[in-house]
Amino acid sequence: MAGIIERVAWDVAAADAIGYRFPNLQVKFGTQVIVRENQKAVFFRDGKAYDVFGAGRHTVSSANIPLLTQYLEKLNLIQQGIFECEVIFVSVSQFTAKFGGKAYSAPGATFAYQAEVGYHGQTIYEIDDPKMFVIELFGNKALATSEAVEDYLRDFINQNVQAELGRVDIVMLTQQLPKASEKVNLSVSDIARGLGIKLRNMAFEVMIPEEARRFAAMGDRAMTMQYMKETAAELGPSEGGGMAGAGIGMGAGLGMAQMMMGAMQGAPGAQAMVLCPACRAQNPQTAKFCSSCGGSLAPKPAATVACPKCQAQNPQGAKFCTSCGNAFA
């Protein structure tokens, strides 16, 4: 029969190549399959992975591919010791996947304040279960290069990082960042294991803006008291402030403070507040100008720098690109 393969080997493999597929091979009992030290060879047929060869020179026989032989014999697909299959070589070397992006913390308990934080990191990974890897990524998702696998890993790592950072407010996030990092590692490692991939040494850094750090340091309760103090000072004694506004006496000032406290604790009709970047006074989130100093509340555009690799804009001072993970020199 024409086209029968006598020898199968992945001889020329680039350093970043994670796998190579030999499709639609006419193989016979006696064909030589040569597997190098950092490789595994997986026999694949009709969307399923069967037998796996480790490093060495192998002569194909019914004894060393029992799973595939049993399947083919059941369907009478072996004729005179010749059959059709695919052989997929997988590198078991270690690879690096970079990731990064932006996430939002959960709203605060008192103020509906969500901080935007940046993050970036990388993980070292390797193929731990070649058979599962071939089924999931080569078979089901048709990923055939290390670049495609890295893109896939980056996507689900980013999703898990963003989900975990979004579960806690900025106060808790600054206090429990190591714990959040550990949860992300466990979650992502479990998903990767289901793809036949083992993650090693995954680490990432979260960049918290200065304003969010000040908010976290002050805390919700202190922010509430600061808001009441500034409002009472603005009202003045003749408008119900003074001692009443400070919470000592009776009257309109105390009533106003209690109303504000109730609103900020989730009473009906409460609205989110924002800090004036100039004087730090609290203003309704819908306000365009500060009620205390008249300054604009429009957010100032953050300074950015273009990634030399993909041209994506990144926060000034970033160490890695939030789009492609490229390290900045």
Task: Kindly summarize this structure in a few lines.
With 329 residues, the protein is α+β, with helices and mostly antiparallel strands. The protein is built from eight helices and 13 strands.
What does this structure look like?
This protein folds into three domains: 4-91, no CATH class; 95-208, 2-Layer Sandwich (Tetrahydropterin Synthase, Chain A), CATH 3.30.479; 218-274, no CATH class. The protein is α+β, with helices and mostly antiparallel strands and 329 residues long. Strands 1, 2, 3, 4, 5 and 6 form a six-stranded mixed beta sheet that branches. The model is unreliable at 240-270 (pLDDT under 50). It is built from eight helices and 13 strands. The chain has helices spanning 66-74, 130-140, 146-165, 170-175, 177-193, 210-235, 242-245, 252-264, and strands at 4-9, 19-35, 39-45, 48-53, 56-59, 82-91, 95-104, 116-127, 197-207, 273-275, 282-284, 304-306, 313-315. The chain is 32% helix and 29% strand.
